[in-house]
């Protein structure tokens, strides 16, 4: 399940604390503090134009990952990024989280397309998108991530 994140949620996560009535087990590393800080800043920037901008990925009462709008490429389009803690990967969690996001997007008239990118070697993330009906739309070289595959899905 995905739960919309607030500034308070980000602040607590950056302190190593679980927000709301959720928990983070000791073996969970969602992201290092500088990455959480960057994601919080990005969410704030996106939220000025589009909300919600970020979600926690929750299994039961445990936070196991994060999902965010990372760009607003054009009218009706959101570009997403997501990650699941390494100790919780391989359980279909990302696939379910992206499915939840698509269900939300299909109910929101502002969203007509969702896009994402995966590293060419990241087969798990590629499968997550394929299982949710995304289509490959091309490749590009990212300044930070190197070669990536571009994906999108029409939601309207």
Briefly characterize the structure.
The protein has 156 residues and is of the alpha+beta class. The chain is built from four helices and seven strands. It has one domain (2-154): Gcn5-related N-acetyltransferase (GNAT) (Aminopeptidase, 3-Layer(aba) Sandwich).
Features of the shown structure:
Aminopeptidase; alpha+beta; seven-stranded mixed β-sheet
Write the layout of secondary structure elements.
Layout lengths: L1 E3 L2 H8 L18 H15 L6 E6 L2 E13 L2 E8 L8 H15 L5 E7 L3 H9 L3 E8 L3 E9 L2
Helix pairs in contact: 1-2, 3-4
Write up this protein.
With 156 residues, this protein is an alpha+beta fold. The protein has a single domain (2-154), classed as 3-Layer(aba) Sandwich (Aminopeptidase), CATH 3.40.630.30. The chain has helices spanning 7-14, 33-47, 93-107, 123-131, and strands at 2-4, 54-59, 62-74, 77-84, 113-119, 135-142, 146-154. It has a 7-stranded mixed beta sheet with strand order 1-2-3-4-5-7-6. Helix 3 packs across helix 4 (123-131).
């Amino acid at each position: 399940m995905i739960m919309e994140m607030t500034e308070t949620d980000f602040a607590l996560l950056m302190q190593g604390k679980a927000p709301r009535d959720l928990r983070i087990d000791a073996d969970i590393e969602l992201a290092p503090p500088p990455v959480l800080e960057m994601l919080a800043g990005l969410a704030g920037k996106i939220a000025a134009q589009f909300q919600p901008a970020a979600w926690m990925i929750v299994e039961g009462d445990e936070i196991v990952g994060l999902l965010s709008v990372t760009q607003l490429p054009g009218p009706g389009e959101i570009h997403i990024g997501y990650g699941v803690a390494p100790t919780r990967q391989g359980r279909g969690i990302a696939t379910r989280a992206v499915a939840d996001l698509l269900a939300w997007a299909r109910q929101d008239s502002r969203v007509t397309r969702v896009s994402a990118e995966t590293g060419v070697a990241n087969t798990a993330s590629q499968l997550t998108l394929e299982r949710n009906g995304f289509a490959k739309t091309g490749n590009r070289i990212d300044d930070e991530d190197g070669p990536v595959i571009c994906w999108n899905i029409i939601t309207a």
